[in-house]
Amino acid sequence: MTVLWWVSVVSLLVWVWLALCHGGFWRTDQRLPGGGGEAVAWPSVVVLVPARDEAEVLPVSLPSLLAQEYPGRARVVLVDDHSTDGTGGLARELARRTGGLELAVTTPPPLPEGWTGKLWALRHGVEQAPDAEWLLLTDADIAHRPGSLRALVAAGEGGGLDLVSQMARLRVATRWERLIVPAFVYFFAQLYPFRRSNRPRARTAAAAGGCSLVRRSALERAGGVAAIRGAVIDDVSLARAVKRTGGRTWLGLADLVDSVRPYPGLGPLWRMVSRSAYAQLRYSPLLLAGTVAGLGLVYLVPPVAALAGVAAGAWWTAGAGLAAWAVMAGTYLPMLRYYGRPAAAAPLLPFTALLYLLMTVDSAVQHWRGRGAAWKGRTYPQPQRAE
Question: Which residue windows are transmembrane per the record (predicted)?
Fold first, then answer.
């Protein structure tokens, strides 16, 4: 028990540091900033929607975009990335039924080597929007509530920002979604604390790919979409590129933006995480080993120490484990409240962390087998780098 006691104390100290010194990652108060009043002249906006085989979700998401009321010029460009399920035709039909903003459906040339499909589609979409001052990059599974577009532009213009991004509220309808989704956002915030990312001089930079409004001049200054053309985790890469070239970025949790993509079981959620987890570690076995060890120390040691200590009557070990577990659960509560989940779910975070650990290892195994980041019938087995 002596070794376990020391390890549990280290885990407790790590949790105290995370709670007090890690950019307030656990807080959920980073919400869309106000724009400081009505704009005198609203800038032109083009909404870019890359879509590949998205006929299942378009009937919910696309009408919400077309129905946006915006005081300036705005239109929607859906880039049908060689879908086989009638995505493009469905989008046109939805536009005829819905009305509202103008919709253009376009198809990019065949995917060249060195590009991910989404970024190639976005590059093509940017080319179709030469007059736009702002570009809203939003995924095909993202539904926007009334006022979303106006609020995003107001925040960008009023705050002097170059990139305004919101982490869409994901579905928590099924048992597995309720278990995994809040933790997914919590882990992302732990990796990229929103408050720290939003500081102009901080090195941390992150965005959420489902909803990112970028100033066209800032995108061009960063080298355009081509600068990140092979990035599997394109949202974070975009934020880094914009911030690195002097742009101001902002990331927060969404109140007006929701993901409508269903994850009915563990399998789809597993694939969502594992397809890019090893890319997040820059395909490094050393970082993978460190991540596995870190997850074990931070998330698994506290419950093991608490339960083993109680079973063996080693009360100091049990106390250290329980204290670390309590701090962990306390930092998880705000995210659970954001997703409408009960506080009783907080102690289950170590189990969810174990699942994420296994997903990360599986991501590395798939990469080593040459399957890499597989998505929508495409596989990116090797890290792609822009020249």
Answer: 281-301, 307-327, 339-359
